Amino acid sequence: MPDAYHIPAMLKETIEGLNIKPGGVYVDVTFGGGGHSRAILEKLASPYPSPEGKGEKGMLFSFDQDIEAYENAQAQMANGKWQMANDSWTFVHSNFRYLRNWMDYYDVPEIDGILADLGVSFHHFDCPERGFSFRFSAPLDMRMNQTSKRTAADIVNSYSEEELAQLFYLYGELKNGRQIARAICKARTDKRIERTEDLVKIAFPHPLPERRGDEIEVPTNAKKDLARLFQALRIEVNDEMGALREMLLAARDLLKPGGRIAILTYHSLEDRLVKNFLRSGNLEGTIEKDFYGNNLSPFTLIEKGREASAEEIERNPRARSAKLRVAEKK
């Protein structure tokens, strides 16, 4: 397991955007390496005196569908690297699309804030056997939840040429998506496509990538398109866009007036959805207005796509594509 499971982008800005209230109820729907959850817990009093003089404590629910995230947190706590207030923290091993169901289960009718870092954890990209990266020789897996049945190999070997072409265009914005889809369908007639290097060679056969141990040396001019190809497959394997839509609707309904939602996006597809949702309050992005022309969105925008500073990008190059959007419930 890598030393840094994940380094969150714009941590300070994101936590400030949430405007955390001691004693409030917060949800981190993307626990990952626990960086955001730890920062939230540091701002939650446990307990703190209420105006009535009674002690109250804040609560944090952290979601992650990958059990390795929780195991990593437990290992860090056991080693004393950082502590979590267990009486204030609840880990939920689940996809964040079930946010509403779990809040009902825990009898939480409303929340003060919700945070979502939609970036893939460093661990997933840097752990070869998970199959998220074209940099390593590995099974074509890409499942965030390892108990799920469908893998990237299943999609590559079962989708029709038309379905693959549409997938690569919608989720990867690949201009040569149809050409790659055709090459995949041709190649799989000889044998099933099982590994990352097989897909790389099919998608970009000239020049052939070299393999050094578990690492694949890919020509520089192919890296951008390969990143988009693997992104498209990852999004489809994990139904990331469908899950995001369900989570946004649940967050809108669960947030208290004055509660905030902070979301970090990393590619144009998810950023467009989040941007339009926070502007309009609906998935279609349709802005409804009253008789006087006032926007009827349930949100007031706080951050409209803030990007990481040059200093942060120098420390953490993966923060380069991050955008922070924050909105407050009216």
Structure description:
With 330 residues, the protein is α/β, with parallel strands linked by helices. It has 13 helices and eleven strands. The protein has helices spanning 11-18, 35-43, 67-78, 99-105, 122-126, 152-158, 161-172, 177-187, 196-203, 220-237, 240-254, 268-280, 310-315; strands at 25-28, 48-49, 55-56, 59-63, 89-92, 111-117, 210-212, 215-217, 255-265, 299-307, 323-329. It has a seven-stranded mixed β-sheet, sandwiched between helices. A two-stranded antiparallel ribbon has the order 2-3. Strands 7-8 form a two-stranded antiparallel sheet. Helix 7 packs across helix 10 (220-237). The longest helix has 18 residues, at 220-237. The N and C termini lie far apart (43 Å).
Give a brief rundown of this model.
This protein is 40% helix and 17% strand. The protein has 330 residues and is of the alpha/beta class.
Secondary-structure arrangement, i.e. CATH architecture of the largest domain: 3-Layer(aba) Sandwich
Instruction: Spell the H/E element sequence.
Output: HEHEEEHEHEHHHHHEEHHEHEHE
Question: Taking Cα atoms only, what radius of gyration do you get, to the nearest Å?
Answer: 21 Å
Strand order of the largest sheet: 5-4-1-6-9-11-10
Q: What's the CATH C level of the largest domain?
A: Alpha Beta
Number of strand segments? 11
